[in-house]
Design goal:
- The protein is mostly helical.
- It has a domain of 114 residues: Orthogonal Bundle (Arc Repressor Mutant, subunit A).
- The protein contains 7 helices and 2 strands; from the N terminus they run αααββαααα.
- It has a two-stranded antiparallel sheet with strand order 1-2.
- α1 packs across α3.
- The mean pLDDT is 93.
Length: 164
């Protein structure tokens, strides 16, 4: 399974928004600046997150983005579904029922064992994503972050949010 960059960018953006003081928003240009990402592509991700009710956008002088619900109520599975969609990654085409050894379709009483294994693996992966919240991502990041990086982030937030 290969995920798009949009997943990583979205999770980081949600974590950044989750770190905002209550009631404040962050403009998309500032989010893009923080991670050195192209604003236009990040905008596409935020539009998908907005459609999924994970972020809210406000307009006007103090406008920007904020989380649509508390960070402990947004999971990585929510983000994955918002960006990639909710379809299964594996699609069984039942090719076992084709070719020289194929028999009448009524003879295939059980689901394909390969498809069953793939669906179980995807369910396990989704179950793990559902356990991780944006609040958990923020907490883990704070524990892993070198003190110098944390201070640079605080300084950046102070400078950027002071200008709003």
């Amino acid at each position: 399974m290969k995920l798009t960059q949009g997943i990583e960018w979205s999770i980081h953006s949600l974590a950044l928004l989750g770190a905002l003081p209550e009631g404040l928003t962050l403009r998309i240009e500032k989010m893009a600046e923080f991670y050195e990402l192209p604003t236009a592509y990040l905008r596409k991700q935020l539009q998908a997150l907005s459609r999924a009710n994970l972020v809210e956008a406000t307009t006007g002088p103090g406008g920007g983005y904020k989380l649509a619900r508390p960070a402990d109520q947004i999971t990585l599975l929510d983000v994955y579904i918002a960006i990639e969609g909710d379809e299964n990654c594996f699609r069984c085409m039942e090719i076992r029922q084709q070719g020289p050894s194929a028999v009448d379709k009524s003879s295939y009483k059980r689901p394909c064992n390969i498809a069953s294994a793939m669906y179980r693996a995807e369910k396990a992966w989704r179950d793990e994503l559902a356990k991780v919240t944006i609040a958990g991502v923020i907490k883990d990041a704070q524990e892993q972050m070198p003190p110098e990086q944390r201070q640079k982030g605080i300084d950046w937030f102070t400078r950027v949010l002071g200008g709003q």
